[in-house]
Amino acid sequence: MKYQKLFEKGYIGGVEIRNRVAMTAMGNGLATWDGEASPELIRFYEDRARGGCGLIFTEFTRVDENSGACNPNQLCIASRKHVRSVQRMAECVHRHGAKIFVQLHHGGREAPPALNGGRQPMGPSAIINQVNGLVSAEMTKAEIDEIVGKFVNGAANCKKAGIDGVELHAAHGYLLGSFISPYTNKRTDDYGGNAENCCRIVTDIIRGIRAACGNYPVCVRINGSDFVEGGITLDYAVQVARILESAGADAINVSCAVYETVPNMIEPNYYDEGWRKALAKTVKARICIPVVAVNTIKFPATAEKLLEEGVSDFVGVSRGQMADPEWVNKTRAGREDLIRKCMGCMQCNKSVVMDGYLSCAANPVTGRGTMYNDEYLIRNGDGRRVVVIGGGPAGMQAAIVLAKRGFRVDLLEKKDYLGGMAYLATVPPHKTMVAEFIKTLTAEMKEVGVAVHMNTSADVKMVKKLEPYAVVVANGGTEIVPKVAGLEAANVHTMEEALLKKVTFSGKRVAVIGGGMVGLETAHYLCQDNQVTIVEMTATPGATMYPTVRNKLLSILKDEGVELLLNRALSAVEGDSIVMDCTDSREPRQERLTVDEVVIAAGRKPNLSLYHEMEKAFGKVVMAGDCMMGGCILEATRTGNDNVWFL
Fold it and tell me: Angle CA(596)–CA(599)–CA(601) in degrees, nearest 5?
Protein backbone atom coordinates (compact mmCIF):
# COMPACT_ATOMS: atom_id res chain seq x y z
CA MET A 1 0.00 0.00 0.00
CA LYS A 2 1.28 3.45 -0.94
CA TYR A 3 0.50 5.04 2.42
CA GLN A 4 1.34 2.25 4.82
CA LYS A 5 1.72 4.35 7.96
CA LEU A 6 -1.44 6.30 7.29
CA PHE A 7 -3.56 3.17 7.22
CA GLU A 8 -2.07 1.37 10.21
CA LYS A 9 -4.35 0.78 13.17
CA GLY A 10 -3.79 2.96 16.21
CA TYR A 11 -4.81 2.90 19.86
CA ILE A 12 -5.71 5.49 22.48
CA GLY A 13 -6.47 4.21 25.97
CA GLY A 14 -7.28 0.77 24.64
CA VAL A 15 -9.64 2.05 21.95
CA GLU A 16 -8.71 0.64 18.54
CA ILE A 17 -8.74 3.18 15.71
CA ARG A 18 -8.79 1.91 12.13
CA ASN A 19 -6.19 4.32 10.75
CA ARG A 20 -3.97 7.22 11.79
CA VAL A 21 -6.14 10.02 10.37
CA ALA A 22 -7.93 12.19 12.91
CA MET A 23 -10.33 15.05 12.39
CA THR A 24 -9.33 17.32 15.23
CA ALA A 25 -12.00 19.64 16.52
CA MET A 26 -14.15 20.66 13.58
CA GLY A 27 -17.89 21.09 13.20
CA ASN A 28 -18.33 24.20 15.32
CA GLY A 29 -21.34 26.31 14.39
CA LEU A 30 -23.64 23.41 13.52
CA ALA A 31 -25.18 22.64 16.92
CA THR A 32 -28.56 24.00 17.97
CA TRP A 33 -28.83 27.19 20.00
CA ASP A 34 -29.50 25.16 23.15
CA GLY A 35 -26.40 23.04 22.61
CA GLU A 36 -27.81 19.84 21.16
CA ALA A 37 -26.33 17.97 18.21
CA SER A 38 -28.45 19.12 15.28
CA PRO A 39 -29.24 16.83 12.33
CA GLU A 40 -26.75 18.92 10.34
CA LEU A 41 -23.96 18.37 12.88
CA ILE A 42 -24.70 14.65 13.10
CA ARG A 43 -24.60 14.44 9.31
CA PHE A 44 -21.34 16.40 9.24
CA TYR A 45 -19.57 13.86 11.45
CA GLU A 46 -21.25 10.89 9.80
CA ASP A 47 -20.03 12.00 6.37
CA ARG A 48 -16.43 12.16 7.63
CA ALA A 49 -16.79 8.71 9.23
CA ARG A 50 -18.23 7.35 5.99
CA GLY A 51 -15.34 9.03 4.20
CA GLY A 52 -12.84 6.82 6.01
CA CYS A 53 -11.60 9.00 8.89
CA GLY A 54 -10.31 6.94 11.82
CA LEU A 55 -10.89 9.28 14.76
CA ILE A 56 -13.20 12.27 15.03
CA PHE A 57 -12.97 14.91 17.75
CA THR A 58 -15.99 17.11 18.23
CA GLU A 59 -15.23 20.79 18.64
CA PHE A 60 -15.99 23.13 21.54
CA THR A 61 -18.36 20.97 23.57
CA ARG A 62 -19.42 23.04 26.58
CA VAL A 63 -19.42 21.53 30.04
CA ASP A 64 -21.38 24.45 31.52
CA GLU A 65 -24.80 25.51 30.25
CA ASN A 66 -24.52 28.97 31.79
CA SER A 67 -20.96 30.10 31.14
CA GLY A 68 -17.95 29.51 28.94
CA ALA A 69 -19.66 29.75 25.54
CA CYS A 70 -17.57 31.13 22.69
CA ASN A 71 -20.16 30.73 19.93
CA PRO A 72 -23.95 30.97 19.98
CA ASN A 73 -24.60 27.49 18.58
CA GLN A 74 -22.02 25.41 20.36
CA LEU A 75 -22.42 21.74 21.29
CA CYS A 76 -23.04 21.10 25.00
CA ILE A 77 -22.84 17.99 27.20
CA ALA A 78 -23.62 19.62 30.55
CA SER A 79 -26.88 17.87 31.36
CA ARG A 80 -28.88 14.73 30.68
CA LYS A 81 -30.94 16.48 28.01
CA HIS A 82 -27.84 16.66 25.80
CA VAL A 83 -27.02 12.98 26.08
CA ARG A 84 -29.56 11.71 23.55
CA SER A 85 -28.45 13.87 20.63
CA VAL A 86 -24.78 13.12 21.36
CA GLN A 87 -25.70 9.44 21.49
CA ARG A 88 -27.22 9.68 18.00
CA MET A 89 -24.03 11.36 16.83
CA ALA A 90 -21.95 8.49 18.24
CA GLU A 91 -24.20 5.88 16.65
CA CYS A 92 -23.94 7.49 13.21
CA VAL A 93 -20.15 7.65 13.44
CA HIS A 94 -19.84 4.08 14.72
CA ARG A 95 -21.92 2.54 11.99
CA HIS A 96 -19.25 3.61 9.51
CA GLY A 97 -16.39 2.18 11.56
CA ALA A 98 -14.89 5.37 13.01
CA LYS A 99 -14.34 6.36 16.63
CA ILE A 100 -15.41 9.65 18.22
CA PHE A 101 -14.06 11.67 21.16
CA VAL A 102 -15.94 14.67 22.54
CA GLN A 103 -13.79 17.73 23.19
CA LEU A 104 -14.79 19.13 26.57
CA HIS A 105 -14.48 22.90 26.66
CA HIS A 106 -14.92 26.07 28.69
CA GLY A 107 -14.05 29.38 27.05
CA GLY A 108 -12.75 31.08 30.19
CA ARG A 109 -11.22 34.47 29.37
CA GLU A 110 -12.26 34.07 25.71
CA ALA A 111 -15.98 33.71 26.49
CA PRO A 112 -17.73 37.00 25.62
CA PRO A 113 -20.32 38.33 28.10
CA ALA A 114 -22.86 38.72 25.28
CA LEU A 115 -23.05 34.92 24.94
CA ASN A 116 -22.92 34.22 28.66
CA GLY A 117 -25.73 36.21 30.23
CA GLY A 118 -23.52 39.24 30.73
CA ARG A 119 -21.13 37.31 32.95
CA GLN A 120 -17.56 38.50 33.24
CA PRO A 121 -15.05 36.11 31.66
CA MET A 122 -13.13 34.11 34.23
CA GLY A 123 -9.65 32.71 34.45
CA PRO A 124 -6.79 31.97 36.79
CA SER A 125 -5.86 35.65 37.20
CA ALA A 126 -7.46 39.06 36.85
CA ILE A 127 -5.61 40.31 33.79
CA ILE A 128 -6.58 42.19 30.65
CA ASN A 129 -7.27 40.19 27.51
CA GLN A 130 -5.18 41.97 24.87
CA VAL A 131 -7.58 40.93 22.09
CA ASN A 132 -11.01 41.83 23.47
CA GLY A 133 -9.96 44.27 26.19
CA LEU A 134 -11.90 42.47 28.91
CA VAL A 135 -10.55 41.74 32.38
CA SER A 136 -10.97 38.18 33.62
CA ALA A 137 -12.40 37.51 37.06
CA GLU A 138 -9.87 35.56 39.12
CA MET A 139 -11.43 32.25 40.08
CA THR A 140 -11.72 31.20 43.69
CA LYS A 141 -10.87 27.71 44.92
CA ALA A 142 -14.60 26.96 45.17
CA GLU A 143 -15.14 28.03 41.56
CA ILE A 144 -12.21 25.89 40.42
CA ASP A 145 -13.68 22.88 42.21
CA GLU A 146 -17.05 23.55 40.61
CA ILE A 147 -15.52 23.69 37.12
CA VAL A 148 -13.57 20.49 37.74
CA GLY A 149 -16.86 18.83 38.66
CA LYS A 150 -18.49 20.07 35.46
CA PHE A 151 -15.73 18.62 33.30
CA VAL A 152 -16.03 15.31 35.11
CA ASN A 153 -19.81 15.39 34.71
CA GLY A 154 -19.39 16.10 31.00
CA ALA A 155 -17.15 13.06 30.63
CA ALA A 156 -19.69 10.90 32.49
CA ASN A 157 -22.43 12.09 30.15
CA CYS A 158 -20.23 11.28 27.16
CA LYS A 159 -19.71 7.76 28.43
CA LYS A 160 -23.49 7.36 28.86
CA ALA A 161 -23.93 8.52 25.27
CA GLY A 162 -21.58 5.84 23.94
CA ILE A 163 -18.79 8.25 23.05
CA ASP A 164 -15.42 6.46 22.79
CA GLY A 165 -13.44 8.97 24.87
CA VAL A 166 -13.04 12.65 25.71
CA GLU A 167 -10.53 15.36 25.02
CA LEU A 168 -9.88 18.15 27.52
CA HIS A 169 -9.35 21.39 25.62
CA ALA A 170 -6.37 22.90 27.44
CA ALA A 171 -4.94 24.91 24.55
CA HIS A 172 -5.44 28.24 22.77
CA GLY A 173 -5.95 30.34 25.91
CA TYR A 174 -9.32 28.89 26.86
CA LEU A 175 -10.01 28.20 30.53
CA LEU A 176 -7.83 25.13 31.08
CA GLY A 177 -5.13 26.46 28.80
CA SER A 178 -5.09 29.79 30.60
CA PHE A 179 -4.29 27.96 33.83
CA ILE A 180 -1.45 26.03 32.21
CA SER A 181 0.17 29.07 30.58
CA PRO A 182 2.34 31.44 32.63
CA TYR A 183 1.25 34.15 30.21
CA THR A 184 -2.20 34.19 31.82
CA ASN A 185 -1.65 32.43 35.14
CA LYS A 186 -0.11 34.76 37.75
CA ARG A 187 -1.37 32.86 40.80
CA THR A 188 0.85 32.10 43.78
CA ASP A 189 -1.34 29.42 45.40
CA ASP A 190 -1.64 25.71 44.59
CA TYR A 191 -2.83 26.56 41.06
CA GLY A 192 0.11 28.68 39.91
CA GLY A 193 3.80 29.42 40.21
CA ASN A 194 5.23 26.30 38.53
CA ALA A 195 4.25 23.82 35.84
CA GLU A 196 2.85 21.25 38.25
CA ASN A 197 0.61 23.78 39.99
CA CYS A 198 -0.50 25.38 36.73
CA CYS A 199 -1.56 21.94 35.48
CA ARG A 200 -3.39 21.09 38.71
CA ILE A 201 -6.87 21.94 37.43
CA VAL A 202 -6.34 19.57 34.49
CA THR A 203 -4.82 16.77 36.55
CA ASP A 204 -7.71 17.10 39.01
CA ILE A 205 -10.13 16.66 36.11
CA ILE A 206 -8.28 13.61 34.80
CA ARG A 207 -8.33 11.96 38.21
CA GLY A 208 -11.97 12.92 38.64
CA ILE A 209 -12.86 11.26 35.34
CA ARG A 210 -10.99 8.13 36.39
CA ALA A 211 -12.97 8.01 39.64
CA ALA A 212 -16.31 8.59 37.90
CA CYS A 213 -15.84 6.69 34.64
CA GLY A 214 -13.16 4.09 35.30
CA ASN A 215 -10.78 3.26 32.47
CA TYR A 216 -12.29 5.79 30.06
CA PRO A 217 -9.91 7.32 27.45
CA VAL A 218 -8.84 10.90 28.12
CA CYS A 219 -6.86 12.95 25.61
CA VAL A 220 -5.62 16.46 26.46
CA ARG A 221 -5.07 19.17 23.88
CA ILE A 222 -2.20 21.48 24.83
CA ASN A 223 -0.12 24.21 23.24
CA GLY A 224 3.38 23.34 22.12
CA SER A 225 3.97 27.10 22.16
CA ASP A 226 1.85 30.18 22.82
CA PHE A 227 4.08 32.28 20.54
CA VAL A 228 3.83 35.15 23.04
CA GLU A 229 6.45 36.51 25.40
CA GLY A 230 6.00 34.99 28.83
CA GLY A 231 3.80 32.19 27.53
CA ILE A 232 4.23 28.47 26.96
CA THR A 233 7.52 27.53 25.33
CA LEU A 234 8.34 24.17 23.84
CA ASP A 235 10.43 23.16 26.86
CA TYR A 236 7.57 24.10 29.16
CA ALA A 237 5.11 22.17 26.96
CA VAL A 238 7.22 19.04 27.39
CA GLN A 239 6.97 19.47 31.18
CA VAL A 240 3.20 19.86 30.87
CA ALA A 241 2.85 16.75 28.71
CA ARG A 242 4.87 14.66 31.18
CA ILE A 243 2.79 15.91 34.12
CA LEU A 244 -0.46 15.08 32.32
CA GLU A 245 0.85 11.65 31.33
CA SER A 246 1.73 10.95 34.98
CA ALA A 247 -1.79 12.01 36.00
CA GLY A 248 -3.30 9.38 33.71
CA ALA A 249 -3.86 11.08 30.33
CA ASP A 250 -4.09 8.54 27.49
CA ALA A 251 -2.97 10.87 24.69
CA ILE A 252 -1.70 14.39 24.08
CA ASN A 253 -2.93 16.54 21.21
CA VAL A 254 -0.29 19.16 20.40
CA SER A 255 -1.52 22.45 18.98
CA CYS A 256 -0.21 26.00 19.42
CA ALA A 257 -0.92 29.72 19.82
CA VAL A 258 -3.44 31.89 21.64
CA TYR A 259 -5.75 34.56 20.27
CA GLU A 260 -3.00 37.17 20.48
CA THR A 261 -1.15 35.04 17.92
CA VAL A 262 -4.18 33.58 16.16
CA PRO A 263 -2.67 33.22 12.65
CA ASN A 264 -0.39 30.55 14.14
CA MET A 265 -3.42 28.74 15.55
CA ILE A 266 -5.67 28.52 12.49
CA GLU A 267 -3.28 29.22 9.66
CA PRO A 268 -4.23 31.05 6.48
CA ASN A 269 -2.60 30.16 3.17
CA TYR A 270 0.69 31.87 4.03
CA TYR A 271 1.90 28.91 6.10
CA ASP A 272 3.58 25.81 4.68
CA GLU A 273 2.52 22.25 5.40
CA GLY A 274 4.27 20.87 8.46
CA TRP A 275 5.63 24.23 9.63
CA ARG A 276 4.88 23.40 13.29
CA LYS A 277 6.03 19.77 13.28
CA ALA A 278 8.91 20.39 15.70
CA LEU A 279 6.39 21.07 18.47
CA ALA A 280 4.68 17.67 18.30
CA LYS A 281 7.87 15.75 17.55
CA THR A 282 9.66 17.20 20.58
CA VAL A 283 6.74 16.38 22.89
CA LYS A 284 6.36 12.87 21.45
CA ALA A 285 10.04 12.11 22.10
CA ARG A 286 9.58 12.77 25.84
CA ILE A 287 6.37 10.85 26.61
CA CYS A 288 5.15 7.30 26.06
CA ILE A 289 1.46 7.90 25.31
CA PRO A 290 0.24 8.63 21.75
CA VAL A 291 0.51 12.12 20.29
CA VAL A 292 -2.05 13.69 17.95
CA ALA A 293 -1.05 16.78 15.99
CA VAL A 294 -2.27 19.07 13.25
CA ASN A 295 0.30 20.40 10.78
CA THR A 296 -1.57 22.31 8.07
CA ILE A 297 -1.79 19.08 6.10
CA LYS A 298 -3.14 19.35 2.55
CA PHE A 299 -1.72 16.28 0.78
CA PRO A 300 -1.74 12.60 1.84
CA ALA A 301 2.00 12.39 1.10
CA THR A 302 2.62 15.04 3.76
CA ALA A 303 0.60 13.11 6.32
CA GLU A 304 2.51 9.92 5.55
CA LYS A 305 5.87 11.68 5.81
CA LEU A 306 5.00 13.16 9.21
CA LEU A 307 4.15 9.69 10.51
CA GLU A 308 7.34 8.24 9.03
CA GLU A 309 9.40 10.98 10.70
CA GLY A 310 7.85 10.24 14.08
CA VAL A 311 6.27 13.65 14.40
CA SER A 312 3.06 12.21 15.83
CA ASP A 313 1.09 8.98 16.13
CA PHE A 314 -2.06 10.45 14.56
CA VAL A 315 -2.20 13.17 11.92
CA GLY A 316 -4.90 15.77 12.24
CA VAL A 317 -6.44 16.42 8.83
CA SER A 318 -9.17 18.77 9.91
CA ARG A 319 -9.84 21.50 7.38
CA GLY A 320 -8.75 18.98 4.74
CA GLN A 321 -11.69 16.74 5.62
CA MET A 322 -13.95 19.76 5.84
CA ALA A 323 -13.09 20.53 2.22
CA ASP A 324 -13.52 16.88 1.26
CA PRO A 325 -15.15 14.34 3.61
CA GLU A 326 -13.86 11.59 1.29
CA TRP A 327 -10.20 12.63 1.84
CA VAL A 328 -9.30 9.26 3.37
CA ASN A 329 -11.27 7.05 0.98
CA LYS A 330 -9.89 8.85 -2.07
CA THR A 331 -6.37 8.49 -0.68
CA ARG A 332 -6.87 4.77 -0.16
CA ALA A 333 -8.25 4.41 -3.70
CA GLY A 334 -5.30 6.24 -5.23
CA ARG A 335 -7.50 9.10 -6.44
CA GLU A 336 -5.69 12.02 -4.85
CA ASP A 337 -6.45 13.99 -8.00
CA LEU A 338 -10.10 14.06 -6.90
CA ILE A 339 -9.47 15.31 -3.35
CA ARG A 340 -10.74 18.87 -2.88
CA LYS A 341 -7.94 20.19 -0.74
CA CYS A 342 -8.12 23.01 1.77
CA MET A 343 -6.98 26.32 0.27
CA GLY A 344 -6.29 27.99 3.61
CA CYS A 345 -8.75 30.75 2.72
CA MET A 346 -10.20 30.75 6.27
CA GLN A 347 -13.81 30.70 5.08
CA CYS A 348 -14.57 27.97 7.65
CA ASN A 349 -13.35 30.09 10.54
CA LYS A 350 -14.88 33.24 9.11
CA SER A 351 -18.29 31.62 8.71
CA VAL A 352 -18.47 30.48 12.32
CA VAL A 353 -17.17 33.73 13.77
CA MET A 354 -19.17 36.06 11.53
CA ASP A 355 -22.54 34.34 11.24
CA GLY A 356 -22.33 31.15 13.26
CA TYR A 357 -22.88 28.62 10.46
CA LEU A 358 -20.01 26.54 9.11
CA SER A 359 -19.17 26.74 5.41
CA CYS A 360 -16.25 25.96 3.09
CA ALA A 361 -15.23 27.69 -0.13
CA ALA A 362 -13.90 24.49 -1.70
CA ASN A 363 -16.97 22.44 -0.85
CA PRO A 364 -20.44 24.03 -1.06
CA VAL A 365 -21.94 21.00 0.72
CA THR A 366 -20.02 21.55 3.97
CA GLY A 367 -22.43 22.61 6.71
CA ARG A 368 -25.39 21.80 4.43
CA GLY A 369 -25.10 18.03 4.17
CA THR A 370 -28.75 17.44 4.98
CA MET A 371 -29.71 19.37 1.84
CA TYR A 372 -27.02 19.05 -0.81
CA ASN A 373 -25.32 15.67 -0.54
CA ASP A 374 -25.06 13.64 -3.74
CA GLU A 375 -27.68 11.20 -2.49
CA TYR A 376 -30.27 13.99 -2.74
CA LEU A 377 -29.53 14.77 -6.39
CA ILE A 378 -32.51 14.46 -8.71
CA ARG A 379 -30.98 12.35 -11.48
CA ASN A 380 -33.40 13.28 -14.23
CA GLY A 381 -31.01 14.62 -16.85
CA ASP A 382 -31.77 11.76 -19.23
CA GLY A 383 -28.90 12.75 -21.48
CA ARG A 384 -30.38 16.15 -22.30
CA ARG A 385 -27.77 18.75 -23.22
CA VAL A 386 -26.96 21.70 -20.99
CA VAL A 387 -24.49 24.37 -22.03
CA VAL A 388 -22.42 26.02 -19.30
CA ILE A 389 -20.79 29.29 -20.34
CA GLY A 390 -17.68 30.03 -18.31
CA GLY A 391 -14.96 27.84 -16.83
CA GLY A 392 -14.41 29.51 -13.48
CA PRO A 393 -15.25 27.77 -10.18
CA ALA A 394 -18.96 28.60 -10.59
CA GLY A 395 -19.18 27.14 -14.08
CA MET A 396 -17.12 24.08 -13.21
CA GLN A 397 -19.15 23.35 -10.09
CA ALA A 398 -22.39 23.74 -12.05
CA ALA A 399 -21.09 21.43 -14.78
CA ILE A 400 -20.13 18.74 -12.25
CA VAL A 401 -23.53 18.81 -10.54
CA LEU A 402 -25.40 18.72 -13.83
CA ALA A 403 -23.33 15.80 -15.11
CA LYS A 404 -24.00 13.88 -11.90
CA ARG A 405 -27.69 14.51 -12.47
CA GLY A 406 -27.43 12.80 -15.84
CA PHE A 407 -27.30 15.77 -18.18
CA ARG A 408 -24.95 15.91 -21.15
CA VAL A 409 -22.85 18.95 -20.31
CA ASP A 410 -20.81 21.17 -22.63
CA LEU A 411 -18.69 23.80 -20.88
CA LEU A 412 -17.59 26.71 -23.06
CA GLU A 413 -14.56 28.75 -21.97
CA LYS A 414 -13.34 31.67 -24.07
CA LYS A 415 -9.83 31.64 -22.62
CA ASP A 416 -7.13 29.03 -23.03
CA TYR A 417 -7.20 28.21 -19.31
CA LEU A 418 -9.80 27.20 -16.74
CA GLY A 419 -10.41 28.86 -13.40
CA GLY A 420 -11.56 32.37 -14.34
CA MET A 421 -10.63 34.88 -11.65
CA ALA A 422 -9.44 32.01 -9.45
CA TYR A 423 -6.74 31.32 -12.04
CA LEU A 424 -5.44 34.86 -11.57
CA ALA A 425 -5.48 34.28 -7.83
CA THR A 426 -2.94 31.47 -8.29
CA VAL A 427 -0.23 33.92 -9.40
CA PRO A 428 0.60 35.83 -6.17
CA PRO A 429 2.87 34.11 -3.63
CA HIS A 430 1.43 31.42 -1.35
CA LYS A 431 -1.61 30.75 -3.57
CA THR A 432 -0.63 27.31 -4.89
CA MET A 433 -3.63 25.64 -3.23
CA VAL A 434 -5.98 27.70 -5.39
CA ALA A 435 -4.19 26.24 -8.41
CA GLU A 436 -4.64 22.80 -6.85
CA PHE A 437 -8.36 23.50 -6.46
CA ILE A 438 -8.69 24.33 -10.16
CA LYS A 439 -6.84 21.10 -11.03
CA THR A 440 -9.23 19.12 -8.84
CA LEU A 441 -12.35 20.66 -10.42
CA THR A 442 -10.87 19.91 -13.84
CA ALA A 443 -10.28 16.28 -12.83
CA GLU A 444 -13.82 16.02 -11.46
CA MET A 445 -15.28 17.32 -14.70
CA LYS A 446 -13.34 14.70 -16.63
CA GLU A 447 -14.47 12.01 -14.19
CA VAL A 448 -18.17 12.77 -14.71
CA GLY A 449 -17.91 13.29 -18.46
CA VAL A 450 -18.18 17.05 -18.95
CA ALA A 451 -17.13 18.09 -22.44
CA VAL A 452 -14.83 21.12 -22.10
CA HIS A 453 -14.37 23.47 -25.07
CA MET A 454 -11.51 25.93 -24.63
CA ASN A 455 -10.95 29.12 -26.64
CA THR A 456 -14.68 29.20 -27.33
CA SER A 457 -16.59 32.46 -27.06
CA ALA A 458 -20.29 31.88 -26.57
CA ASP A 459 -23.04 33.84 -28.26
CA VAL A 460 -26.67 33.04 -28.95
CA LYS A 461 -26.03 31.86 -32.50
CA MET A 462 -23.39 29.30 -31.63
CA VAL A 463 -25.21 28.07 -28.51
CA LYS A 464 -28.37 27.50 -30.56
CA LYS A 465 -26.43 25.10 -32.77
CA LEU A 466 -25.95 22.89 -29.72
CA GLU A 467 -29.73 22.75 -29.15
CA PRO A 468 -29.50 22.86 -25.35
CA TYR A 469 -32.25 21.97 -22.91
CA ALA A 470 -30.90 24.71 -20.65
CA VAL A 471 -28.08 27.26 -20.45
CA VAL A 472 -25.99 28.20 -17.40
CA VAL A 473 -24.35 31.60 -17.64
CA ALA A 474 -21.22 31.77 -15.48
CA ASN A 475 -19.05 34.04 -17.59
CA GLY A 476 -17.80 36.19 -14.71
CA GLY A 477 -17.99 39.87 -13.99
CA THR A 478 -16.28 42.86 -15.56
CA GLU A 479 -13.34 44.77 -14.18
CA ILE A 480 -14.08 47.98 -12.32
CA VAL A 481 -12.19 50.84 -13.98
CA PRO A 482 -12.33 54.33 -12.46
CA LYS A 483 -13.56 57.03 -14.83
CA VAL A 484 -10.54 59.31 -14.75
CA ALA A 485 -8.33 60.96 -17.30
CA GLY A 486 -5.14 59.33 -18.53
CA LEU A 487 -6.04 55.66 -18.36
CA GLU A 488 -5.25 55.25 -22.04
CA ALA A 489 -1.56 55.93 -21.36
CA ALA A 490 0.97 53.21 -22.18
CA ASN A 491 2.03 52.89 -18.53
CA VAL A 492 -1.49 52.03 -17.31
CA HIS A 493 -2.36 48.33 -17.09
CA THR A 494 -5.11 46.10 -15.77
CA MET A 495 -4.59 43.68 -12.95
CA GLU A 496 -5.20 40.82 -15.38
CA GLU A 497 -2.46 42.04 -17.74
CA ALA A 498 0.01 42.17 -14.86
CA LEU A 499 -0.86 38.79 -13.35
CA LEU A 500 -0.90 37.02 -16.70
CA LYS A 501 2.47 38.60 -17.51
CA LYS A 502 1.11 40.29 -20.61
CA VAL A 503 3.11 43.23 -19.29
CA THR A 504 6.20 42.83 -17.16
CA PHE A 505 8.39 45.30 -15.35
CA SER A 506 11.18 45.17 -12.81
CA GLY A 507 12.78 47.81 -10.64
CA LYS A 508 9.88 50.19 -11.26
CA ARG A 509 7.81 52.45 -9.04
CA VAL A 510 4.35 50.89 -9.34
CA ALA A 511 1.03 52.27 -8.12
CA VAL A 512 -1.63 49.61 -7.56
CA ILE A 513 -5.04 51.30 -7.65
CA GLY A 514 -7.34 49.49 -5.23
CA GLY A 515 -6.68 48.14 -1.76
CA GLY A 516 -9.26 45.39 -1.63
CA MET A 517 -8.29 41.72 -1.68
CA VAL A 518 -7.48 41.86 -5.41
CA GLY A 519 -5.32 44.94 -5.00
CA LEU A 520 -3.43 43.62 -1.98
CA GLU A 521 -2.66 40.30 -3.65
CA THR A 522 -1.65 42.00 -6.89
CA ALA A 523 0.70 44.21 -4.88
CA HIS A 524 2.11 41.11 -3.18
CA TYR A 525 2.98 39.69 -6.60
CA LEU A 526 4.46 42.90 -7.99
CA CYS A 527 6.50 43.84 -4.93
CA GLN A 528 8.89 40.96 -5.51
CA ASP A 529 10.73 43.07 -8.14
CA ASN A 530 9.31 46.57 -7.78
CA GLN A 531 8.67 49.37 -5.33
CA VAL A 532 4.90 49.23 -4.88
CA THR A 533 2.43 51.74 -3.48
CA ILE A 534 -1.20 50.76 -2.93
CA VAL A 535 -3.79 53.52 -3.38
CA GLU A 536 -7.08 52.82 -1.59
CA MET A 537 -10.01 55.24 -1.48
CA THR A 538 -11.36 54.03 1.89
CA ALA A 539 -9.82 53.92 5.35
CA THR A 540 -9.74 50.11 5.49
CA PRO A 541 -7.57 47.99 3.22
CA GLY A 542 -8.96 44.54 2.44
CA ALA A 543 -12.28 45.45 4.02
CA THR A 544 -14.06 42.27 2.87
CA MET A 545 -11.22 39.95 3.88
CA TYR A 546 -11.31 37.92 7.08
CA PRO A 547 -9.10 39.73 9.63
CA THR A 548 -6.74 36.79 10.15
CA VAL A 549 -5.93 36.67 6.43
CA ARG A 550 -5.92 40.43 5.96
CA ASN A 551 -3.67 41.15 8.91
CA LYS A 552 -1.18 38.49 7.89
CA LEU A 553 -1.02 39.79 4.32
CA LEU A 554 -0.70 43.40 5.46
CA SER A 555 2.16 42.34 7.73
CA ILE A 556 3.90 40.64 4.82
CA LEU A 557 3.42 43.67 2.57
CA LYS A 558 4.84 45.95 5.23
CA ASP A 559 7.89 43.72 5.58
CA GLU A 560 8.30 43.81 1.79
CA GLY A 561 8.35 47.61 1.83
CA VAL A 562 4.96 48.18 0.21
CA GLU A 563 3.52 51.62 1.00
CA LEU A 564 -0.20 51.90 1.71
CA LEU A 565 -1.99 55.18 0.97
CA LEU A 566 -5.51 55.18 2.43
CA ASN A 567 -8.38 57.64 1.88
CA ARG A 568 -7.07 58.49 -1.56
CA ALA A 569 -8.99 58.13 -4.81
CA LEU A 570 -7.33 58.17 -8.20
CA SER A 571 -8.18 61.40 -10.00
CA ALA A 572 -5.90 61.28 -13.04
CA VAL A 573 -2.82 59.72 -14.58
CA GLU A 574 -0.46 62.37 -15.89
CA GLY A 575 2.73 61.06 -17.46
CA ASP A 576 5.08 59.89 -14.72
CA SER A 577 2.69 60.64 -11.87
CA ILE A 578 -0.81 60.04 -10.59
CA VAL A 579 -3.13 62.59 -9.01
CA MET A 580 -5.17 61.53 -5.99
CA ASP A 581 -8.15 63.12 -4.25
CA CYS A 582 -7.88 62.93 -0.47
CA THR A 583 -11.23 61.45 0.52
CA ASP A 584 -10.81 62.13 4.25
CA SER A 585 -10.31 65.86 3.79
CA ARG A 586 -13.12 68.30 4.57
CA GLU A 587 -11.74 70.72 2.01
CA PRO A 588 -10.92 69.53 -1.51
CA ARG A 589 -7.28 68.49 -1.53
CA GLN A 590 -5.12 66.57 -3.94
CA GLU A 591 -1.79 64.80 -3.77
CA ARG A 592 0.60 63.73 -6.49
CA LEU A 593 2.71 60.57 -6.55
CA THR A 594 5.56 59.93 -8.96
CA VAL A 595 5.30 56.49 -10.57
CA ASP A 596 6.59 54.53 -13.54
CA GLU A 597 3.67 52.11 -13.92
CA VAL A 598 0.02 52.05 -12.86
CA VAL A 599 -1.98 48.85 -12.32
CA ILE A 600 -5.77 49.06 -11.92
CA ALA A 601 -6.92 46.46 -9.38
CA ALA A 602 -10.22 47.87 -8.15
CA GLY A 603 -12.12 44.58 -8.30
CA ARG A 604 -14.99 43.38 -10.44
CA LYS A 605 -18.72 43.99 -10.78
CA PRO A 606 -21.59 41.79 -12.04
CA ASN A 607 -22.21 41.62 -15.77
CA LEU A 608 -25.72 40.52 -16.76
CA SER A 609 -25.56 41.34 -20.47
CA LEU A 610 -24.88 37.79 -21.70
CA TYR A 611 -27.48 36.38 -19.32
CA HIS A 612 -30.15 38.71 -20.73
CA GLU A 613 -29.21 37.71 -24.28
CA MET A 614 -29.49 34.02 -23.44
CA GLU A 615 -32.70 34.55 -21.48
CA LYS A 616 -34.38 35.96 -24.56
CA ALA A 617 -33.25 33.08 -26.74
CA PHE A 618 -33.75 30.04 -24.49
CA GLY A 619 -36.44 28.78 -22.15
CA LYS A 620 -34.29 27.68 -19.21
CA VAL A 621 -31.40 29.98 -18.30
CA VAL A 622 -29.73 30.37 -14.89
CA MET A 623 -26.78 32.38 -13.61
CA ALA A 624 -23.88 31.52 -11.32
CA GLY A 625 -20.80 33.27 -10.00
CA ASP A 626 -19.49 36.78 -10.55
CA CYS A 627 -21.80 37.58 -13.44
CA MET A 628 -24.69 37.73 -10.96
CA MET A 629 -22.99 38.78 -7.73
CA GLY A 630 -19.59 39.83 -6.51
CA GLY A 631 -17.76 37.51 -4.21
CA CYS A 632 -14.99 35.00 -3.70
CA ILE A 633 -14.69 31.29 -4.39
CA LEU A 634 -17.37 30.48 -1.78
CA GLU A 635 -20.01 32.46 -3.64
CA ALA A 636 -18.87 30.91 -6.92
CA THR A 637 -19.08 27.29 -5.79
CA ARG A 638 -22.33 27.85 -3.88
CA THR A 639 -24.18 29.52 -6.73
CA GLY A 640 -22.75 27.00 -9.17
CA ASN A 641 -24.05 24.21 -6.97
CA ASP A 642 -27.37 25.59 -5.78
CA ASN A 643 -28.62 27.25 -8.94
CA VAL A 644 -28.55 24.03 -10.97
CA TRP A 645 -29.67 21.66 -8.21
CA PHE A 646 -33.29 21.70 -9.39
CA LEU A 647 -32.75 22.81 -13.00
Answer: 155
